[in-house]
Write a structure and sequence with these properties.
Number of domains of chain B: 1
Oligomer: heterodimer
Number of strands of chain A: 0
Shape of chain A: flat
Distance between the termini of chain A: 52 Å
Strand order of the largest sheet of chain B: 1-2
Helix content of chain A: 55-70%
Number of helices of chain A: 3
Number of strands of chain B: 2
Radius of gyration of chain B: 24 Å
Radius of gyration of chain A: 16 Å
Structural class of chain B: mainly alpha
Low-confidence stretches of chain B: none
Helix content of chain B: over 70%
Largest sheet of chain B: 2 strands, antiparallel
Structural class of chain A: mainly alpha
Strand content of chain A: under 5%
Largest interface: A-B, 41 and 61 residues
Chain lengths: ~70, ~675
């Protein structure tokens, strides 16, 4: 990999990190992190599609206690 | 050595700023002193007091695996880096409370409110958030209600749950009332807020159907559309055809908000509730950052006196003396029981290391308090005459700019009718008189700051931007709150008849949603029809309920300390608990029993009864007013009773443990060594 490509990859990494941070701050689902988690901890389980994950995440998040304050 | 010098310098800067605030009476001073005093105090509090809590009292241990690590599931239990989690937690706890409370409390002048906001947070509010976050983190992220049940017994647990539900009803009503007062007879505002509904639905379909999971993309599009709607609102308000369509009375808006709350609670979350939540979170965090930047750039002079004559309890915005009502009115900026629900909700499941809880629990609340200080600055930079014209009830101001100017002159502040009309025109409204609730005066203050910093001549746009941002996230609290209330009610009803407890059973969903909406809707409509503007009676009721929930949270925190064998440190929760109880029970008592009909619910009911007897009010109206007064009195008494019961039950537990009649065992999850380096 040339130096320039390396810098580009790092730049992409920074942007991806920023986007993940934005998602976490707003309490949004993070599909990539979920897939990564499944692969590491439960390799035997099937990986759900992005839509399925989004639905189950939303259900869980707004399912119980208050998420927002006064 | 160098760092010690830096801390000494900081302490000095904070002290000097407080000194300047204390000594400059009767002349305008710069908001810079307020900001400096607050930030200096926060940093000292964070560096020393929160470290004491973390190291000595809670003994946070980074060798101990957090729930996020042990129970990682990639969904709610997710280890998150601490600054990101700080942002997440802050976005969840910050709402209308810290913005509206200080604006209302500015009727006493800027100093009393600021002192309570800053010292209250360091010694009480941040301690509460921190201890609940800590306790929940040690219990796999359990909720406040569950912890109360496990540590103090089932009765306390149920009382805590009832308290939460009751508080939710009052909270939603009063927040919705703030929106109603900001939007009534404002076609620009109504149009912009109405647009948020189709925008949210569009985002919902984008994220679920068209491009699944692309939440950020959809949010960016949503924000762009929202800003377009904001700009378009100006043309709607100027159009002779469209403007009347969007000019709604307070009652119409109230029923619209009630209908919206019901629909949002029944619809699938992805369609309306979740996209609106994203939209409002980004708008909220973005605007708060913008406001902070604006204040730092402009450093406006504070025109409001440090202390006004209304500390004697004759204030027009709300009744009651400085003590206890300044402390009730500030609500969330200094201590907020509601935070205990968030600190025992999503946040504890995302902590990577135990020590992160200090920055997030304690530091997050300091940030919230800073928002309250900014709101205080925004209110205090207004001409006092204008502040009172916006916030006093219309009945005391009379209907016109002339009558309002005359009334305000009698209160000792000068404002000309021309000034009032010109300001209304400048922000693109017909009138700003009698818009109690804090949002409009905050919006005027914010508009002055933001147009000063980022574009002169855009006052109207900034004003409506501020109104839109507040209404947006208040309505988000209303819809998520209604939904949570619905779940709680379904859980309770499930004990009576099992099918009612099934959250996926449609009839039960509809019934429970309708019941919750009817609950807060009743108080909302009561507030809209109230001749004094509703905020007068409902905001103190909300402040009382929120602080009483804080008392419940502090009781749970104390119980946990006692059971952990740390009784010698319980003063960290007992002192704020004693203060909060003293303030809140005094305020509650006065709201119910005070002889002044402006203050006491029962005295007001008696006054209306007299007026009825002399024929000054018509019977139907009198009956309604009397019923509402009595209802408010009962609600306040129930709040006080529930809290006293929780305190007594907790104190009994403490004594049993301290006298060794009950084993001192906490129900923490057992220690597991972390795998993180």
């Amino acid at each position: 990999m040339s130096e320039r490509e390396g810098a580009k990859a790092r730049g992409r990494g920074v942007i991806a990190g920023l986007l993940t941070a934005l998602r976490r701050v707003a309490g949004m689902p993070d599909y990539a992190a979920y897939v990564e988690h499944l692969r590491r901890c439960h390799p035997e389980r099937p990986v759900p599609g992005e839509r399925e994950y989004f639905e189950s995440f939303t259900r869980a998040r707004y399912g119980d206690g208050p998420t927002r304050c006064c | 050595m160098l760092s010690k010098l830096a801390w000494l310098g900081l302490a000095l800067a904070g002290t000097v700023a407080w000194g300047v605030l204390a000594l400059h009476r009767g002349e305008t001073i710069s908001a810079a002193w307020l900001v400096l005093a607050a930030v200096g105090t926060y940093l000292i509090g964070f560096r020393f007091y929160s470290r004491f809590l973390a190291d000595r009292v809670f003994q946070l241990n980074d060798r101990r695996a957090t729930p996020a690590e042990r129970l990682a599931n990639g969904r709610d239990y997710v280890p998150t880096s601490r600054w990101v989690l700080f942002g997440h937690h802050f976005a969840a706890i910050a709402g209308a409370g810290p913005l509206v409370g200080p604006v209302l409390a500015a009727q006493f002048g800027y100093l009393p409110g600021t002192i309570w906001i800053v010292f209250g947070v360091v010694l009480a509010g941040a301690v509460q958030d921190f201890i609940i976050l800590f306790a929940s983190m040690r219990r796999d992220g359990k909720s406040l209600g569950q912890m109360a049940k496990e540590e103090t017994g089932p009765v306390t647990g149920i009382l805590a749950m009832v308290a939460v539900l009751a508080i939710m009803v009052i909270l939603l009503a009063v927040l919705a009332l703030v929106v109603v007062n900001a939007l009534k007879d404002s076609p620009w505002g109504v149009f912009t807020i109405l647009c948020t509904i189709p925008i949210a639905i569009l985002m919902g379909f984008w994220m679920k159907v068209w491009r699944p999971g692309r939440t950020l993309e959809a949010s960016a599009a949503g924000i762009a559309l929202l800003l377009a709607a904001l700009v378009a609102g100006r043309y709607v308000a100027a159009s002779p055809v469209l403007a009347p369509l969007f000019t709604w009375s307070g009652t119409t808006i109230a029923y619209a908000v009630i209908a919206y709350g019901f629909v949002a609670s029944v619809l699938p979350v992805w369609m309306l509730l979740c996209p609106r939540d994203y939209l409002s979170t980004f708008m909220k965090v973005g605007t708060i950052l913008l406001l902070a930047l604006g204040i730092l750039l402009v450093l406006p002079p504070l025109r409001m006196p440090a202390i006004t004559r209304f500390v004697d309890g004759t204030g027009p915005v709300f009744a009651g003396k400085l003590f206890p009502f300044a402390f009730i009115t500030i609500a969330c900026g200094a201590i907020s029981g509601f935070h205990a629900l968030v600190a025992s909700g999503t946040t504890p499941k995302m902590l990577t290391r135990e020590s992160d809880a200090r920055l997030i629990g304690y530091g997050g609340m300091l940030m919230e308090s800073f928002v309250a200080v900014m709101a205080m600055c925004a209110a205090a930079l207004l001409d006092p005459g204008i502040y009172f014209a916006i916030n006093a009830p219309l009945t005391s101001l009379g209907g016109t700019a002339e009558s309002a100017a005359e009334v305000i002159r009698q209160w000792g502040f000068t404002v000309s009718p021309g000034q009032l009309t010109a300001l209304a025109q400048e922000v693109g409204e017909k009138t700003l008189l009698g818009r109690a609730g804090g949002a409009p005066s905050l919006a005027v203050g914010m508009a002055q700051i933001l147009s000063g910093a980022f574009g002169q001549g855009l006052m109207a746009l900034w004003y409506h931007f501020a109104i839109m941002f507040e209404a947006l996230f208040i309505l988000t609290t209303v819809d998520t709150g209604t939904r949570v209330g619905r779940f709680m009610l379904q859980e309770l009803a499930g004990h009576v008849w099992e099918p009612l407890g099934r959250t996926s059973w449609y009839p039960s969903t509809i019934l429970a949603s309708a019941a919750v909406v009817a609950g807060w809707g009743y108080f909302l409509v009561q507030g809209v029809l109230d001749p004094l503007g509703g905020i007068n009676s409902l905001w103190p009721l909300f402040g009382i309920s929120n602080q009483l929930l804080a008392a419940v949270a502090l009781c749970v925190g104390t119980t946990i300390l006692v059971k952990a064998g740390k009784a010698r440190y319980t003063w960290v929760t007992l002192l704020p608990l004693a203060w909060v109880l003293m303030v809140t029970l005094t305020a509650g008592w006065q709201k119910v029993f005070a002889d002044d009909p402006r203050l006491g619910f029962l005295a007001h009911a008696a006054l209306v009864a007299d007026q009825l007897a002399s024929g000054a009010v018509e019977p139907g109206r009198a009956a309604r007013l009397i019923f509402n007064d009595r209802l408010d009195a009962v609600v306040a008494m129930v709040f006080m009773l529930v809290t006293v019961l929780v305190v007594v039950a907790s104190a009994r537990e403490w004594i049993l443990v301290l006298t060794r009649r009950r084993p001192a065992v906490v129900k923490e999850t057992p220690f597991v060594e972390t795998a993180y380096v």
